[in-house]
């Protein structure tokens, strides 16, 4: 498949490319942050993260050397307010350096170990985003804002509550499993009881995490599953929630009831999916483990099944969202096909103003119309990246 044919395929299957990029990047980020140590899966984190990012750059980012900056969105206006109308943006590298120094200082002075933990990885990735923010070209403003908001939300969801809990308990050298106690273990126990699995949720000596005790059907001995922060799935939920919040804020031009409903539905279903993930892990141990297997089935489900179950749900949710998501401006160029066709017939694909017989225009093979003067900004179509059909660069530029 030649380069032009490949670009044409990407232009026709843009939603599929986005879905593949989202799933691959999510899988890599989840394994990097919540790595299942001792299993072969942890070695796939970096390849999946790099591969997903490559697919995202190749299939989603706009093409053309002079593509225009993306229109306004909820995210862009929110970031302008947070940065004092952009005055703080030049200081982002300074903020990034300060965050790195504070994280290292925290590890040396307060943490139980100076080694980098999961929360340190999240903080340092956010600092890296601040370093790179000012170097991203303006034509990639939407993608730049998405990444910035993603890591901002990730720290708000995963890092700040942990620091607040440690401050409240005046103990910075242990993991405070607040999420497991409040929003996971009791709900998992209720669902299991409704499914006919007797269980109890209780404190475990020597641990801050809750324990869920049950008796496997073919085992005959009580088993206690300790749901720590690392095993709770909170990191996967945090990654999904952060990506989804950033996605919605960058796709919508203004806050609306539909946007808030979609955001609430996404966060609720992510939480429900995590509870069901834990329920499935326990059910596998309850129904399949015996004295001979010695709970190996449940351990395998915990190491592999839980991650695959959540990833499968992510694939289902995003495929539905990308297929049926109602969008405001500035996503007009990616609206429903019938609306898109009407807009392409009447508006320039670059400046979005009306096309008239008076002003010369050209039409790309992807179906988008452009003013000839607008097309002089690039030798390639900004929608699909293909050369202008039947026109040489000299003809486009009026030479």
In short:
This protein has 399 residues and is mainly alpha-helical. Helix content is 58%, strand content 5%.
Model description:
- Helix 2 packs antiparallel against helix 3 (45-59), helix 8 (178-194) crosses helix 10 and helix 9 packs antiparallel against helix 10.
- The protein is mainly alpha-helical and 399 residues long.
- Helix content is 58%, strand content 5%.
- The strands form 2 sheets. The chain has a 3-stranded antiparallel beta sheet with strand order 1-2-3, covered by helices on one side. Strands 4-5 form a two-stranded antiparallel ribbon.
- A hairpin with an 8-residue loop joins strand 2 and strand 3.
- The model is unreliable at 62-70, 328-345 and 392-399 (pLDDT under 50).
- The chain has 14 helices and 5 strands.
- Among the domains are: 1-61; 336-396, 2-Layer Sandwich (Herpes Virus-1), CATH 3.30.40.10.
- It has helices at residues 3-12, 14-33, 45-59, 74-82, 92-109, 118-133, 141-169, 178-194, 234-251, 257-288, 296-324, 337-346, 372-375, 393-396, and strands at residues 200-203, 210-214, 223-226, 361-363, 369-371.
